[in-house]
Amino acid sequence: MGRQGLLEGPLSVAHGIWLDPPEREALARAGVVVAHNPASNLMLGSGILPYAASLAADLPLALGTDSGLPGRFQGFFEHEELRLMVESGLTPMQALVAATGDAAKCIHQAGQIGTITPGAHADLVSFTKDPTRNILATRTIESVWVDGQPVP
User: Fold this and answer.
1) Is the pLDDT of residue 75 over 80?
2) DSSP state for residue 128 in the 8-state scheme
3) Band (10; pLDDT cuts 50, 70, 90)
4) How far apart are CA 44 and CA 149, in angstroms?
5) In 1-152, where do the E strands start and end?
6) Dihedral angle, C-alpha 7, 9, 15, 20, nearest 10 °
7) How far apart, in whole angstroms, are the C-alpha atoms of residue 63 and residue 99?
8) 3-state class of 114 per DSSP?
9) Which partner for 27 in 32, 68, 82, 131 could form a disulfide, CB atoms 3.0-4.6 Å apart?
10) How far does CA 24 lie from the centroid of its chain?
């Protein structure tokens, strides 16, 4: 990838399930974010990202959606994607970071969205249970805020 100039400039890689250790390390050194799509990979039967190896290589992971798939409902499937990421080896917190801060890095919006940071858009979701302890708690949405305003 490096010899072809693919690691120059901003880059995100979809899925990442067949990367070998040297490729993971090269992507991590170049600051590449892997947008993993666990539900899509399950439907296609193509495999699951080796989360532990990816994290050990310091390779940032973002939650991808493959939102164009038939039968996929935006919003609902993100809960399933998070559950699959945790079942595959991430902690709930790592899965949440993949869906927020690392996803923002993937689309070159770090510092603007995806984290609670001064000056960033105030897009927030509050839950009645703690999703850092149990990822299924993402289904207990209490309120949603977009750009600092509550969504009725």
Assistant:
1) no
2) S
3) confident
4) 39
5) 12-14, 33-36, 61-63, 124-127, 141-146, 149-150
6) 20
7) 5
8) coil
9) 32
10) 16
